[in-house]
Each structure stands twice: as structure tokens, then as C-alpha cells.
Fold these 2 entries.
Entry 1:
Amino acid sequence: MATPPPSAGRAVWTPLFWTGFAIVGLVLGGVIPLLNLAVAHDSPIGVPDYLVPLFGKYLCYAMLAMSLDLVWGYAGILSLGHGAFFALGGYAMGMYLMRQIGARGVYQNPTLPDFMVFLQYKELPWFWWGFDHFAWAAPMIVLVPGLFAFVFGWLAFRSRVTGVYLSIITQAMTYALWLAFFRNDMGFGGNNGLTDYKDILGWDVHLPQTRLGLYIASVVGLGIAYLVCRSITHSKLGRVLLAVRDAESRLRFLGYSVTRAKLFVFTVSAVLAGIAGALYVPQVGIINPSEFSPGNSIEIAIWVSVGGRGTLVGAILGAVLVNLAKTWLTGAVPEIWLFFLGSLFVLSTLVFPSGVVGLVNLRSRARRSSQPDAEAGAAPRPVEPPMAAKEQA
């Protein structure tokens, strides 16, 4: 898939872009909350309370898909381990939420979470220290996946691991974390994970107002993440990333540091995935090792492929559309969901490799080319005879 080179900064942040951005933000952050608060839930246009966290979950998935599109669509790095960064950010948030339970747990222990009391922990592990304060948990949401991605990327990119080999080791990475977090002695709740949250920043997580606030936070987070990704892809670094994707060896020959470019964008992508996971956990009420499943990371790649790689907007659309289909199919005909997902991947690879956004762009270009311009629609001018014919006449 060929992505056109980013245009100059003054052509990117146009009034038309900001108008569209504001309209989408108003619909997601204003209209939907208004329909939830001011319209009766049994009304055809009302948004019931149970749909608010569901929409928030879709937005977190959209941010996760966009983070993968940043490295896959623009830098050509197919990471099959982005679910790990999403889960690490989610666990950081889950640890903070567990520490807020205090003595309100089943065993009424003010220091140890319930699963630690059940597993006969004598004291709180050192890596849980500080998570009773949001001021400590918030930077950990960014630092843990970011630092993990930085170390992993430095080792991989410095060794010039590329292509399918990089995809395999990223999948091996998330598989190793999946197995590790299943262990009870890791101190993260084992296969049950972290759940039974009570409040966040003093607000009851079960209240509709809190869930609406988390949804709005997801809207804001998605908007900021989109602006960050757009500013990267439409900068000089964005042009370097496209060159990394299309002709990495030539870029090295020209003297560019390919390793630094890859490492930077890979780390930023992991941070965005971690933030998405942190916003996701309080809205669904649980985080467990299943989020590390390699199948989840493959599904993220399908979202991006369906929406359209190298577009950012396509990743958002793909994540929302595929998860809408998943919500409906797993409730109506759950036995065909995996077949449907596999068919989507095959179709997005063979039939429409540019995704939904690519199909829309292709159709709009075809429509413009089929419309005759003013000169083509005018009557043809009479052709004057050559000068020699005039002289003979």
C-alpha cells in the first residue's frame, strides 16, 4: 500500500480539518452524553447507561488500533505484541484501583488486596508501593509500557531485526508475558486478574455519572492521541518513517539513523497503547492475563487492516466497525464469530488491501475522473486547415 508523502505543516492543520475535528468531538463528547442525560432511556434516540461504557470501550480500542497503525502503516513495523502494552497500562491502572478498595474488600484487610490475603501474602510486594496514590499510578501507566517497548525495541532494531522475524518475536514477547501473569506468585492476581473495583479518584466506579466521566475521558484521550499521531506522521519524521517502510536500506545509505526513528515511534506507540489500556480497565471492571493473549494482538492488526493502514482514521473506523460486529455476532450467532473474523482478514488482504478508507478514496477519485470538466463538455472547435492547404486554395 502506497501512502502519499505527508504534506507541509501549513497544509495539514487547515480550517477544514479543525472544523471536522470539532464536529466529531462535539458528537462524541457532547451529543452522546446529552442523549444519555437528557433523553429517556426507552426513547429510540436515548443512550442507556449500559451503552456508555460499551462506547467507551470502543474508543479505547480505537486508540489502541491507531497506535498500531502508527508503527505498521507508516513505519512498516508489524507488531503482533501491541496487546501486551495495552495490558501493561491496564494492569497499572488496575493496581491503583485495587489499592483504593482498602478495608472494603472481602477479607477487610486495609493493606493487602483480597487475592493476596487468599494466597497468604505476608506483606505488600515492593512493586505495589505507591499505587495507592494516583499521582504515582499515572506516570506508571506511561512509563511501564514505554520503558518496556524502549528496551525491547532497542535490542531488536539495533540488531536490525525486521519483517516477519520482528513480528514473530513481538508475538513471542506477549506470549511470554501471558504465561508469566497467569502465575499466582507473580503478585498480579493470577488467572483471575484484578477486579472488584470500588472507586476512582473518590468516585464510585459503578455510578452512571462516573461511567459517563470515563467515557468523556476516553473521547479526550482519543482526540489527543490522534493529534499526536497526526503531528508525527505529517512532519519530517513522518517522511523518514515512510522511507523506512518503503526503502530502509536506501535510507541507511543516505546517513539517516533508522534505529532511532524506529525506536522513537515504537515507544510512542506503546505509550498510547498503555494509556488506552488504562482508560479501558475502569470501564470494563477487570484486567486479567487474557489481555496478553497473542490472539488479541492479531485481532488488533485485523482492525487496522480492515480500516486502512497508513491513514489513522482508518484504524479508528476499523476498530469500531469490527467490534460493533463482534458485539452483535457474539450475542446472536457466537459460533460464527471466528470464521467472520478470519474472512475479514482474508478479504482485507486479497480484495481490498487499502481497507475501508482506501475504498472510499478510490471511489471518490473515480467519481471525480468520470465527471467531464467544462472544456470537455463544451462543443469542439472547428479544426483549421493547415497553412499549405490554405495556399493551394
Entry 2:
Amino acid sequence: MFNALDHLIVAVRNLDEAEENYSKLFGFKSAWKGEHKEFGTSNCLFKFKNTYFELLAATGTGPGAALVQHHLDNTGEGLIGTVFGTEDVEDVAGALREKGFHFPDPSDGEGSNFKDKKIRKWKNLFLPPELTRGLFAFVIQHTEGELIGPKLYRPASISRLDHLVIQTNDADGFIKIYRDLFNIRLSLDKIVERWKARILFFRLNKTTIEVVEKSDDQHPQDPQDKLWGLTWDVESIEQAHKRLLSEGVDVTPIKKGMKENTLVATVKSHTHNVPTLLIQHLK
């Protein structure tokens, strides 16, 4: 059904400021800066090996601007949405309708790049609330144009998304949607006693979706999911750490990760309220 975690969306107040901060954090410039006139939003995109990252700001009037502004007013800046990629959005819509879900037909989208005036086009399928469970999530099929990332990801820069963390109060319900309906592979289902939590790992296009259910926060009668944070993969965490400090980014000392043969460091600034971890998988 889905072939990728296509991109993540972060709501920000000032797009220029956020672009500058994330350029420092990632170690390279954005690939795209444009607008969605019909939605009242402007965006900035960073391309990685396995996904892309979207900063989204309200700069006009429309449903997108209303969504961003509502999030800023109630929650502040931070992760606002996840987008799943597909090669055939009509096929996804048909498969979900056969399961009894109801939603509008896929809609066309278009964006223009301020940098070079290029156009990208796509089709969106916005998922119904019973599938998103509190998240803003939709499906996208890219139909025209492409997003070009760096020719080379340096060892000191971020190259790919390692995993996305989602909090839930209903892990069983999450599995029914993401594994049984969306056909995303569930690679781990484990109780971690010291955290008093149940941990799920879903794998999609070499990207992990980590889902955490705390034992004291189970309310299946009111299932709800919440985007929490991101972990980014770097080739050399030592070089990345040194680069970030030189850019004025606050980052914790490097330490051994919870997973064997990993090193991690937490980014404490420039993230616009997105909990952010860097990880290096030692070979």
C-alpha cells in the first residue's frame, strides 16, 4: 500500500528563521522553498536518502494555514504531520474504501520553488480520523518534478532519518491499523520493564517508526496517537558534534546508545520544539 515514509511536517512561526536553524542542524542547505497558494502556506524542504523534511508556515489564508495556526496557538511549534508515499493513490483509496472507510477523493496539489521557479505536482489522499487517531496524516503520490538533495552527504552532516517516535495509549489498535490495514511490517513488539512501556518497531523503506505505549497511559476507549520526536543518522557523530558546536548549536556530550554498537547525542537547540537525537551505528 505504502512504499515510504515520504516526509515529515514541522509547523513553524517564521519560515526563514527555521530554514536557517535547520540548515545548521542538518549541515546542508534546503532543496526547495516555495508555497501552496491554495492552502495559504509556504514551505521549505530538506532532502535525505530515505525521506524529506518539511518546514511549514502559515503565510496566507486557506485550510493549510488554518491547520498550522491552530497547532501554533494550541501546542506551539513542532511536529505536526506524517505523510506516506505511494505509487498509486487511487489504488490506496479503493483498498481503504473496500474496508469500509469514507473520505473525499484524492486531490491535486502543486508547489512552486522560489529558488528556480520549478514546479512539483502531486496527488493527496487525506485519511479519516478513525485511521489517524489524533495525528495529521495523509498519503501522497508524486506526479511531476522531483526534489534534488545534496550530491554528497558529508560525514559531519545528517544523511537519513533513522526513526520517528510516536506515543500511543493503544498499541493493539495501532497494530490493527499500521500492520493489518496499511501493511507496514511490524519488526518488534516488546515490553521494556525498566521503562514500564510497550515498544513497537514498524519498518518502511529502511526507516523505523517507533511506537511507545506507557503502562500507566492505556485508554483504548479513547485511542490517541501523538508525534513525539526524531532520530537522525550520521556517518560520524564525532564530526557532526564538532560541527554543530561550531555553528552555535547546543548538543549534549556523545554517549553510548541504548542499542548495542551505537553512539548518540541529543540536540538541545535549533529544533523548533522537535525532540531530536543523533545516532551513529558503529560498524
